[in-house]
Amino acid sequence: MNKEQLVNIIKYKKSFLCIGLDADINKIPKHLLDNEDPVFEFNRQIIDATNDLCISYKPNIAFYESRGSKGWLSLEKTIKYIKQNHKNIFLIADAKRGDIGNTSKLYAKTFFDDETTGFSFDAVTVAPYMGFDSVSPFLEFKNKWVVLLILTSNEGAQDFQLLQTENKKMLFEEVLTKSKEWGDENNLMYVVGATKAEMLSRIRKFAPDNFLLVPGIGAQGGSLSEVAKYGINKECGLIVNSSRDIIYAGKGMDFAGKARTQAQSLQKIMEAILSEYEII
Amino acid sequence: MNKEQLVNIIKYKKSFLCIGLDADINKIPKHLLDNEDPVFEFNRQIIDATNDLCISYKPNIAFYESRGSKGWLSLEKTIKYIKQNHKNIFLIADAKRGDIGNTSKLYAKTFFDDETTGFSFDAVTVAPYMGFDSVSPFLEFKNKWVVLLILTSNEGAQDFQLLQTENKKMLFEEVLTKSKEWGDENNLMYVVGATKAEMLSRIRKFAPDNFLLVPGIGAQGGSLSEVAKYGINKECGLIVNSSRDIIYAGKGMDFAGKARTQAQSLQKIMEAILSEYEII
Question: Known catalytic residue: A96?
Fold first, then answer.
């Protein structure tokens, strides 16, 4: 998917919501456990109930990988199901991969090349520590995206990402600056945690036109207006993720309906924001 | 496996060789492709031919993951095979994972908890960019190890790892210093590329007692003496990896024998080094 298509989906759906498909077999409703593949069935119902309200799904790969080959099968089925049944979805593999060149090429193939793995993600999250040649193999795929970790939402983000360097920048700004030599707003997005909303304006100085993937928003939408205030650009430029607050909104037979209600309340706020900033 | 056991294996086998099980379906000998699981069969023969010469195997997960659930099955079979047939092997998952706390916990479970995935690795490589809470879940498993990326062997290592910080340290030294608050020489190792042998002495100042995992050594053993010169400590403290030069030493029916010959030439050099430094 290219940038124009993504922006069109945002305008069409009046939403910039990404739903994190972090399906944990220990947390999904108990009645699903009788299914042949409970995780897939959980995802399928969540997807059917929410796909008109969100522009993106983002499975975090750890949730699947931690169940071994069985988990990978659930993920393969989920991705195929989305591709076959729901258009207008930007698919993000939250994998946080990154390795030496030849190996990163294999990771890129894993998530982008559906002939071998059955996957056909639009984007992969990538960790920057190993530098240029660990990221560039992902950028070589046409109409695919790298979502580079810049400023994450966890506490440990302070350990290194906020270190001052000799260039009077913080490390995350070094990563941002350097990465602009590798790709541009048509194949490179950045992860910026919502817990650092005021940092978004700092990031916008370096990356005015790139999309930012913002995790860490609660269903209450508390900081959504903050994120928009500091981070929105003329094409929206934001993909805001919510995971647990949506997918575990209900525990019973009506869990998918409850998820829809949560997603809808976020979508409504987003619609108002898009309208306020004259994007729709 | 604890540190004492690892050191004992090094002394017993007179080796500190790790073999990278980076089995690429496009590179393994053609005659294996008739097997039900060619990658497992390749690994099995390599393992049977080399397990007395090395102390460790290190599959890079990308090679398996890039074949989807099929690849994960090959990896599961390989790990089970090693555990059942060959003792005295330190098993490293070269996964370069790292995510927010709860998610890193799932990755740790993936590689350390064999009840769910069939894996029972002794160690996992972890990327440090996300800081403390992305690494610590791996450190909570008893007798398991984090191998933290410090100074990698690829060109892109220069982009961020060598940046000077406000503390007059390079970023890799910041990571090293900080990580000592998280673990110690009994659960924390570091990745240091062999292409930077002289850097090893700088790293030894910060981490005199930790094991270092050193990739990037060729079968010719050219820089092995350099690595030892700058990096060895009283318990050896080195695990040196070689992948392609060993596992692809031969292309024909005798590929495993050829791999053994290559591994043996490295082991002989290592034996001489261990003897020179009075470790054996």
Answer: yes
